[in-house]
Automatic annotation (TrEMBL):
Higher taxonomy: Eukaryota, Metazoa, Chordata, Craniata, Vertebrata
GO molecular function, one term: L-ascorbic acid binding
Subcellular location: Nucleus
Compositional bias per record (Polar residues), positions renumbered to this chain: 87-99
Biological source species: Denticeps clupeoides (denticle herring)
InterPro entries assigned to the protein according to its UniProt record, in alphabetical order: HIF_prolyl_hydroxylases, Oxoglu/Fe-dep_dioxygenase_dom, Pro_4_hyd_alph, Pro_4_hyd_alph_FE2OG_OXY, Znf_MYND
Positions of region (Disordered): 54-100
Predominant localisation class: nucleus
EC numbers: 1.14.11.29
Protein name: hypoxia-inducible factor-proline dioxygenase
Length: 334
């Protein structure tokens, strides 16, 4: 290994432990970093596939005794790796596309997902509609229907140390959930227009909507993968409902560690923000401790072929994640 050079737009970090000081660079691929030789050796099993591909692109790469690379396990650059629709500069454009889901889907979401595997759309439904959805969610929360978030493999109370959210599952036909149903129908509209163009997926349904609340007492969700075992979920879609959110004060960032990239994406849970990302091992992610009440609504879209294989192997997950909801017909403009 050798001392790292400056990497434009990225802060190097140890691929195994996340340490950012006194790093050495992998001498073969020259794109991964480690704090010591021992961590390089420990990470080699995961890194070797990517390392060899990177080395093939380097005309004069050195070949060390051991070389490395895996999904990042620590910190990287505080950079939101999304396309042009994220951010206030495009708020007006995004607002205009609320009535044109096909254009938003094909001209922005599809290329952004295919390039980055992560896509942010701000000002998705507009403030008035977003506030109505927030009212529905708060009313649900007040009824006491939320329960502790569960893990697919649940053992006693182990999940309390892993995830601190309270959740409930909504199909959309429940009384008082009409605006949540409208939200999921608009999500479905976008995904329908993306279908067949986003990755190699043929999407034929989704889960119910998981309405989640972090109560603001410093709870979060440790780093995890939504679909590590091929249960059929291919796209995670999250809608945020948090007015005037200040990440410096309130925390609650969603931090995504894209596989094979020496940088992470910090997503603030801003009001009326819609987020897409691949559900599989390409996007390990965590919810950092939240110090204010944090609401989000998540649905997972199923790939038809993977879902069929999962059913054959009984890998359908647990609870509502295993319940398939057909995609709604195109929603009427409102």
């Amino acid at each position: 290994m050798e001392p790292p050079k400056e990497v434009p737009g990225a802060d190097p970090y140890c691929e195994l432990c996340g340490k950012m000081e006194n790093l050495l660079k992998c001498g073969r691929c020259r794109s991964s970093f480690y704090c010591c030789k021992e961590h390089q050796v420990q990470d080699w099993t995961k890194h070797k596939r990517v390392c060899r591909k990177e080395a093939d692109r380097q005309p004069d790469g050195d070949t060390p005794a051991q070389t490395p690379r895996a999904p990042p396990d620590g910190t990287g650059t505080k950079e939101l790796i999304t396309g042009p629709a994220a951010g206030s500069n495009n708020a007006k454009r995004n607002g205009q596309t609320r009535s044109h889901p096909q254009k938003l889907a094909t001209e922005y979401i599809v290329p952004c997902m295919n390039e980055h595997g992560i896509c942010v759309v701000d000002n998705f439904l507009g403030e008035e509609t977003g506030l109505h959805i927030l009212e529905d969610v708060r009313a649900l929360h007040q009824t006491g229907r939320f329960t502790d978030g569960q893990l697919v493999s649940q053992r006693s109370d182990s999940s309390r140390d892993i995830r601190g959210d309270k959740i409930t599952w909504i199909e959309g036909r429940e009384p008082g959930c009409e605006k949540i149903a409208f939200l999921t129908s608009r999500m479905d509209d976008l995904v329908r227009h993306c279908n067949g163009k986003m990755g190699n997926y043929r999407i034929n349904g989704r889960t119910k909507a998981m309405v989640a609340c972090y109560p603001g007492n410093g709870t979060g969700y440790v780093r995890h993968v939504d679909n590590p075992n091929g249960d059929g979920r291919c796209v995670t879609c999250i809608y945020y409902l948090n007015k005037d959110w200040d990440a410096k004060e309130h925390g609650g960032l969603l931090r995504i560690f894209p596989e094979g990239k020496a940088q992470f994406a910090d997503i603030e849970p801003k009001f009326d923000r819609l987020l897409f990302f691949w559900s599989d091992r390409r996007n390990p992610h965590e919810v950092q401790p939240a110090y204010a009440t944090r609401y989000a609504i998540t649905v997972w879209y199923f790939d038809a072929d993977e879902r069929a294989r999962a059913k054959e192997k009984y890998l359908t997950g647990a609870g509502e994640k295993g319940v398939k909801v057909e995609l709604n017909k195109p929603s009427e403009p409102s």
